[in-house]
Amino acid sequence: MKRVKITVMKTARYDDLIEKYENPLPHPCDMALGQVFFFDGEGQPAGLCDSAWETLAPFALALARGEGDFYDGWMKDPLSAMISCNDGFRPVSFYLERVD
Q1: What distance in Å separates the CA atoms of residue 59 and residue 85, rounded to the nearest whole number?
Q2: CA dist., res. 9 & res. 56, Å (int)
Q3: Are strands 3-11 and 36-39 parallel, antiparallel or unpaired?
Q4: Other C-beta atoms within 10 Å of 24: how many?
Q5: Domain count, the chain
Q6: Fewer Cβ neighbours under 10 Å: the N or C end of the chain?
Q7: At CA 53, angle to CA 50 and CA 58, rounded to 5?
Q8: What pTM, to 2 d.p., does this model score?
């Protein structure tokens, strides 16, 4: 298995949607720009939220197995992916890259 570096590249927060639709959360997303996680082929990286991991996991697993080139040339670096978590109130964009 290859090692995959997961970096927080961008965060957003939609206060208008939060105010209108979301119940208060005791622990909302706390990802920080530049925060880095590593995936070594087994288990969710410590500190990465469950929701983000559900979205990232298929891509991280593929990269760790040596696969890549998602969607036929989507990324300039075929051994990477830019994936956003599925939180519609606080989306976070993560850059996944295989590191050797």
Answers
A1: 12
A2: 14
A3: antiparallel
A4: 6
A5: 1
A6: C
A7: 145
A8: 0.92
Residue listed under structure tokens 């606080």: 90
- Token couple for 54: 């559900």
pLDDT in tens, 41-54: 999 999 999 989 99
**Contact, 64 vs 98, CB < 8 A?**
yes
- Both tokens of residue 36? 């880095």
Q: Which domain holds residue 26?
A: 3-99
Residue 83: closest CA among 28, 31, 17, 40? 31
Amino acid at the residue 65: R
Length of the chain: 100
Question: According to the 3-state scheme, what is the secondary structure of 63-90?
Answer: HHCCCCCCCCCCCCCCCEEEEECCCCCC
User: Which one, of 83, 66, 85, lies nearest residue 75 by Cα?
Assistant: 83
pLDDT tens per residue, range 55-71: 999 999 999 999 999 99
